[in-house]
Amino acid sequence: MLDMDSNDLFSGFDPNTVAAIRAARSTEIAEQGKARAMQKAHRLNLRRAKSAAVLKEILPNRIEDGESWHVISHGDIDSLSYLLHLQQGVNYFDYVSISTWCMGSADLDILEGLIESGQIEELALYVGEIFPSQYSDEYARAAALSKQYGFRLVVARNHSKVMCACSSADDYYIVIESSANVNTNPRIEQTAVHASRELFDFYREFFDGLQTIDRRHGKP
Question: Is position 7 within any domain?
Answer without folding.
Answer: no
